[in-house]
Structures are given as C-alpha cells and as structure tokens.
Description:
Strand content: 5-15%
Radius of gyration: 32 Å
Number of strands: 8
Bound molecules: guanosine-5'-diphosphate, magnesium ion
Distance between the termini: 30 Å
Order of helices and strands: HHEHEEHEHEHEEEHHHHHHHH
CATH architecture of the largest domain: 3-Layer(aba) Sandwich
Strand order of the largest sheet: 2-3-1-4-5-6
CATH superfamily of the largest domain: P-loop containing nucleotide triphosphate hydrolases
Largest sheet: 6 strands, mixed
Structural class: alpha/beta
Oligomer: single chain
Amino acid sequence: xxxxxxxxxxxxxxxxxxxxxxxxxxxxxxxxxxxxxxxxxxxxxxxxxxxxxxxxxxxxxxxxxxxxxxxxxxxxxxxxxxxxxxxxxxxxxxxxxxxxxxxxxxxxxxxxxxxxxxxxxxxxxxxxxxxxxxxxxxxxxxxxxxxxxxxxxxxxxxxxxxxxxxxxxxxxxxxxxxxxxxxxxxxxxxxxxxxxxxxxxxxxxxxxxxxxxxxxxxxxxxxxxxxxxxxxxxxxxxxxxxxxxxxxxxxxxxxxxxxxxxxxxxxxxxxxxxxxxxxxxxxxxxxxxxxxxxxxxxxxxxxxxxxxxxxxxxxxxxxxxxxxxxxxxxxxxxxxxxxxxxxxxxxxxxxxxxxxxxxxxxxxxxxxxxxxxxxxxxxxxxxxxxxxxxxxxxxxxxxxxxxxxxxxxxxxxxxxxxxxxxxxxxxxxxxxxxxxxxxxxxxxxxxxxxxxxxxxxxx
Length: 459
Ligand SMILES: Nc1nc2c(ncn2[C@@H]2O[C@H](COP(=O)(O)OP(=O)(O)O)[C@@H](O)[C@H]2O)c(=O)[nH]1
Ligand SMILES: [Mg+2]
C-alpha cells in the first residue's frame, strides 16, 4: 500500500467511525426522548425532571459531532506559558500574556483551522492551576477536561507536585494528552535533556507513577512559545553602535506538527469517541435514575412472577411443562420490567438475557431430575401413584413439588435481578449502543496513535 492509499484508508475509516457514532447517539436520543411514555404507567414528573439534563447531554453530544469542532485545552501552572503557546500555535498575539500572576482569569477560547481540510479546532486557554484552591481547581480541571478532545499540559521545567497531581487527575478524565515542555530557550541543552528524560520516566511508570502508558514519548514536545528577547548590538558604517532587543521567532513547529498529525489522522475518531463517552454517561444516568425511581414496583413485579412460577411448577405434574412454562413466565417478566422502565431491550440484550434464562431453566430441569432421583418416585411418578390416592406417594409429591417450586421461583427471581442490572447499565451494549461503537473505534485504532493508548482506559 502506498502512502496515499494508506491515508485514504485512514480517512474512510475515520468517516465510518464518525457515521457510526452519529447513528448511535441518534438512536439513544430517539429511545430516551420518549421517556415520558411508560405504557400504562402514568407520566412521572419526578423522573422527567431527573433525566432532563442527561437528555440535554445526549443532544449536546450530537451537536458536538455535527459541529465537527475539536476542542483542545491547555492546563498548567500560572506563567508557564499556556497563553503564549496558544498564540504561537495560531501565529498571532490573540491572548494577553505576561509575567504577572492572573493574566488569564477565566477560561477563554480561540478558534484555529490548522489546515483548510481539517476539522476546526477550538483552543481553550485556562487560568493557572495554582491560582485556584484545591477543590475549585479540581472542578475546573474536570469540567474543562470533560469537554476537551485533547489536552495540552504545559510545564516550564521540572514537574512539581501540583502538576503531577493534576496530571493524574486528568488521566482519569480519559482524554489524550500532550506534555509541552515550554521555555526551553531558558535552559542550556544539558539541563533541557535531563528534564526531558525525567518526563519520559513519568511515562514509563518508574518512580511509582499512576500515569501508565497514557503519554508516549511522541507526545512530550519541547517548545519555546515566546523566547526571551535578546539584546542585539549593531555597528553602522560610521562606527556608531546601536543596541536593541530582538524577539526571536517561537520554536513551535514540532508541536504544530504533532497536533496536525493527530487532527488529520485521528480528529474525527477523537470527536466520535468523546461524543460517545458523553452519550454513554448520559444513557447510564438515565437508566440509573429510572431504575432507582421504580425499584419498588420492579420488586413487586419480580415477586409476583416468582410466585406464579413457583405455584405453577408445584401444581403441574409434567416436567417438560415446568420448563416451558417457566421460560414463558421469565420472558413475560423481562417484558414487564422493560415496560415499567420504559427502557429499550435490544436484541443483543434479549439474547444475553435469554442465555441466563436458559441457565435458570436448565437449573430447574436439573433440580427436577435431582429431586426426582433423591426422592425416589419423583413428582411425575408421585402424581401417577397419587391417582391411586396413596398417602405415602402424596407426601413424596408435595415434598418434591415444594423443592422444585422453590428452585423455579428462585430462578425467576434471579432472572428479574439480572434484567434489572442490564437495564441499569443503560443498554449501551446493543449493536449501535455507545459502548459497542466505542469498542469498535478503539479496536480499529492503529498502534502508535493517541487513541490506541486510550484503549485500556475506555474499555
Ligand atoms: N523565556 C521564555 N518566556 C516565555 C516563553 N513563553 C512564555 N514566556 C513568558 O512567560 C510569561 C507568562 O506567559 P503566559 O503565556 O502569560 O503564561 P500563562 O499564565 O501560563 O498563560 C510571559 O511573560 C511570557 O513572555 C518562552 O518560551 N520562553
Ligand atoms: Mg494565561
């Protein structure tokens, strides 16, 4: 494959990821958008209020995809040069910079189109991490990280404890990260290299770090976003000497290339992934809220079916009917629970549930055979003998029937619980479920890409 072919292969894969993500989120919106309708159950004001923001998050996830806007945010201590890095990237002094603390007070954004064909980028500048106290800092970091597709972590020398803690926190946000070692113009080459090596160690998990493989050496980049002005002396022909300050050009090419490479090769997949992660969280919340608010009714339904089944099994003398009847009871139970929650049960989930049900009816069958053997004549035999109205065989019949009924009832109870936990997980595992599409995108990621390293985190 020549390089043009491979680029077009990457692009078509990127578009495919994008389309699948879109379809997945759209499906979720149409499912959960109807949360008001709960079959025969009355609309639940409380539930509607509880899931409103999650529904909005689902819609936001779709909007984010449609805008095709990749969000890149900077993080770092005050004065490490976050604003300068953004200015250098876009090639203009858009953001105010300065040696004093607090030049950047609020998160601010700037748009940037790296190449005419690429997705558009929004660069988000933030206040210094050491300017806000612990809790507020965590909150800001979390909020901004959550809406970012890529994080630029700017440092200007040896990494400090605060920086390290924030890095670990950001890692939990499961967003790809580039570490930018800024102000390299201030360091002699030897010091620069030793700091760079320290950063690499972070990545290799030595010195007991929690950073794992999130950062690869490809994503530790040295820059000088706004190199210190240097004094220049120039001597004119007539011998007069003039001195002036000259601002050297920023050294930013390597970072620009790294970002360009990511935007071009992975921009759409990153967008798709982040929208899907956002959608998956929203779906899970909706399901959790629904399940929590309807727990009591659900338990009632589960017990009702468990009792039906136990009774039917106890009264019915034919083992085959026990098994079939049990299966049908369980299917009705699943359907009732689905209706109660107003949550979709996809074919995928129905199949998995089916397997559980088979296991539970298999358990019933085994229980049936087992108790038949243990109790000699067994329920079937007992029934036939019961026709002769022997008191002894009736006793055998009842004790076997009770044991089977208990097993059957328990089986249904288990099916009920399993169904509930599936619904709680938000049905994200259907063929177009958010989790499924996330797994697809991650499985297609090429080694040495930033998405490849997210694999561990997101699966
Ligand atoms: N020497 C040197 N100074 C820099 C560099 N980048 C930024 N600075 C200076 O560091 C100070 C803080 O920069 P700023 O971008 O405002 O930092 P922020 O608080 O992280 O946004 C400013 O005085 C910049 O001129 C660099 O690459 N080299
Ligand atoms: Mg700033």
